[in-house]
Known about the structure:
With 160 residues, chain A is an alpha+beta fold. Chain A has four helices and seven strands, in the order βααβββαβαββ. Chain B has a domain at 18-47.
Amino acid sequence: xxxxxxxxxxxxxxxxxxxxxxxDALQAFIGLLRETASHHQNIIHAGYADQTPxxxxxxxxxxxxxxxxxxxxxxxxxxxxxxxxxxxxxPRYSFSMLDDIIILAFELxxxxxxxxxxxxxxDENKRAMYFEYGFENIPGSGKNPFEDFMVFNLLxxxxx
Amino acid sequence: MSYVIRGGKLxxxxxxxxxxxxxxxxxxxxxxxxxxxxxxxxxxxxx
Lengths: 160, 47
């Protein structure tokens, strides 16, 4: 399961990660998410495998898609050594983390009207992964096709 | 606010407004893959 991190525990958590192999832009993104999480604007959830962090995801509530409330996956990171590997009977660590996010959305739905999980993939390879999981492109929603929002609907017959 | 990496730089994404009918359709219709996933996860929660 993913575990929400308090702002006080962020620094300790990130000592388990080395982002030097990632691009400058990605490192800047992660730095920004850490900063905003420390100000409670998003919550970073840790993914653990046998008590060792294998990745994290940054979550927040958004209305960026036509003022429709939804849970936004700002960024999902899996350590390189865990990418494409299986975990139990779930195909991939990333899919396991996405399962946990959808389950978290089910919990949110009990108290607030959240019927969508939104995201914008960081690159096209990731878009294919999210599509494989079940997310759908919202065509023409980005500045270019590489930046379209994707959505996972939680209810059928939704009035938009 | 959402972010993307564009041209090697971190950029903000403007919210989208006034969805077209085609875009609304994506938000209204639950796909078979989404329905199957929801069913499986709810079954997992119930077990």
